[in-house]
Amino acid sequence: MNSIEKALQKQNQKASEQPDRDTTVNAEPASSSIEKAVGTQSPRVQPSKSTTNKVDIEIDFEALDKKGFVSTNSQRQIINEEYRAIKRKLLDNAFGPLSKSLNNSNIIMVSSSRPGEGKTFTAVNLALSIALEQDKTVLLVDADVLKPNVMRTLELNNTVGLMEFLLGEKDNISEVMCTTNLDNLRIIPAGKSHHLSTELLASEKMQEAVEEFANRYPDRVVIVDTPPLLGINETAILANLAGQALVVVEETKTKLADVSNAVKQLNPDMAIGFVVNKAEKANSDGSGYGYYYAGAN
User: Fold this and answer.
1) How many domains does the chain have?
2) Per-residue pLDDT tens for 247-295?
3) Of 86, 113, 154, 196, which has fewest CB within 10 angstroms of its CB?
């Protein structure tokens, strides 16, 4: 945790020069077991097919539950509580007073400094958690076009997606937006790989798509799974399109220098939060992983 605290301190010092952007969170850390849930009941919605729209992809939520993802059933899981704490600050930034000073405040990019730190796991869980809100819809976009992982994580086959739209093979973004069997969740897969991915993500067509994401539906939150921040040109481009960034850090693995350099790749006007993933914090049964919302600026 020392590395994150130092990174946050640096961000807080910068934020202190801009009083209107002070959004520091002092949230209590939460710990969880990925594999074990508690059994108290919670009045949460069940995934179901929409009565007004066709369902393009069927997500196996039972399989996700077994793998330790946010549960969409009525069981109250520890990981659900953790992501409630994380999403609450992000939703406050997206729709609260700070949103007026953020560009595209409802667009949240999820990234990490290096590969393998759990960014896609975090992006999917965050999307599932927000989709359980009664008054919000979520669009999960796989923008890691170099190494797409959203569909694989959901145990689904990759299909046409963002790249096909940017290449002009699909005329409308709605043609690559998949409905799911969770009413409030939509997904845009990455689509096929392309050697001009950087240029396509920097194109005017991508900017227009982001503007539509941000403004067409007032209740929509867009979660963008992006490539790692270090060494990937595409991520810096995407950072200029989102209003918030959630940086995933793997405890005991991520280096302070990497966190610091990763934050430098982000737009300084963004609200920035950190999640510590794979934290070795024993639960009552002596094992488990922790998830922490460290803060935002």
Assistant:
1) 1
2) 999 887 888 899 999 999 999 999 999 998 866 654 443 333 444 444 4
3) 196
CATH number for the domain that contains residue 216: 3.40.50.300
pTM of the model: 0.79
Six-digit token string for 201: 């993500």
Residue showing tokens 């989709």: 131
| Residue numbers of the domain that contains 162 | 2-296
**Rounded to whole angstroms, how far apart are CA atoms 7 and 40?**
37
What b/e string do you get for 167-190 counting C-beta neighbours within 10 Å, with b at 16 or more? eeebeebeebbbbbbbbbbbbbbb
**Nearest to 204, CA basis, from 165, 175, 177:** 165
Residues 42 and 297: beta-carbon distance below 8 Å: no
Element (H, E) at 273: strand 271-280
DSSP secondary structure string for all residues of 193-205: --TTHHHHHTSHH
- The full length of the chain comes to 297
* pLDDT, tens only, 112-154: 999 999 999 999 999 999 999 999 999 999 999 989 999 999 9
